[in-house]
Amino acid sequence: MNRVTELIDELFEKKNLSKEDFIFLINHRSEEAAQYLFEKAGIRRRENFGNGIYIRGIVEFSSYCRCDCFYCGLRRSNQHCERYRLSREDILQCCRSGYEYGFRTFVLQSGEDLTYSDDDICDIVRQIKQEMPDCAVTLSIGEKSFESYQKYYDAGADRYLLRHETASPELYKRLHPSGQTLENRIRCLYDLKKIGYQVGAGMMIQAPYQTAEDLAEDFVFLKQLEPDMIGVGPFIPHRDTPFRDFSAGSLELTLFVLGILRCMFPKVLLPSTTALGTIDPAGREKGVLAGGNVIMPNLSPQRVRGKYLLYNNKLTSSDDARGSVENLRNRMETIGCEVVISRGDAPGKGPH
Ligand code: SAH
Fold it and tell me: Which of 224, 226, 254, 337 is a Cys-bridge partner for 332, taking CB atoms 3.0 to 4.6 Å apart?
């Protein structure tokens, strides 16, 4: 047995790998190793989730952003980004139609748009929970103070997605302007955990300048944080950002990372992301077969779907909520999986 297979076995047995081991694994991976990894990951996924795939309806409610991340199409400096905001009523309407077709988790995501006060966010969360008490609300609205996170939680928010983007301080600096720090990002993640949220971190694969060392650092960081969810997708360039000339991350490495994560964290909620579906037409199915167990279709109103462009060619379906769930159901059946209608909490966690 070679060293790569040995390392995969160790991951599968939940042994902690060192940073050097992760670097070795990434640098010496092969197609055969990937197949072996995905088998192991599949075992862990089925042990914990059977053939069920959780779905979350994502409502991208504002494309305004005060941040200036070099990779993101919504960055403040992008003059070409068409900005929009949804009203509370618009957002509720998206959730209501999503509910009808089986969504029991709504992810409210936006740029960092300070036009919505903490009270506005709390109102929206409260109203969704009041109308649809059997649903979970996930927020993904960026870096805030402990107090703000606490208010949203008290209003009923269940989960929070905030990718750490990279755990390497040097790489973080190359991806963000100087006012945005890894330190604060990590502070936010630990605050969210402390408050009681189900917390999601994550990173892009093959972001500009990212090395195997950087990815290894992400694995080590994630092991410390022990998040409930991990969002991972390939970097994809956007033409109106400083990273326009970099290539997109590969399907192959993204799937390999998903497989590693499923073995490391058997119970984690692991989305097969839109970015994965964007670089390959069957990307989301492949993501599930590599270990993913969550899919997050878009519930935003048709008129704004083309405007929340984190990267170019973003997969936007013309389907409404009903169409997108039916479509997903069929796609998941082709790989022996089944879309589940439930909140889909992290194992052992639930409503608070
Ligand atoms: N403002 C929120 C939401 C950010 S957008 C927050 O700060 O969390 C959600 C995720 O999209 C980001 O965390 C980032 O990892 C990803 N993303 C942004 N630009 C991208 C690009 N060019 N390619 C791939 N993923 C990108």
Answer: 337
CATH number of residue 101's parent domain: 3.20.20.70
Comparing CA positions, the residue from 221, 258, 217, 250 lying closest to residue 21 is 217
pTM for the full predicted model: 0.98
Q: Ligand 1 pocket: which of 176, 204, 257 to mutate (most atoms <8 Å of CB)?
A: 204
- Total number of domains constituting the chain: 1
Domain extent at residue 64? 3-340
Interaxial angle between packed helices 88-100 and 321-333, expressed in degrees from 0 to 180 and rounded to the nearest 10: 40
Beta-sheet pairing, 105-110 with 57-62: parallel
| Residue 308 belongs to some domain of the structure | yes
Cα-to-centroid distance, 163 and ligand 1 (Å): 8
pLDDT digits (tens, 9 = 90+) for 29-44: 999 999 999 999 999 9
Give residue 126 CA to ligand 1 midpoint distance, Å: 26
Please report whether residue 351 resides in a domain. no
pLDDT band at 1 (very low <50, low <70, confident <90, very high): low
> Would 352 be classed as within a structural domain?
no
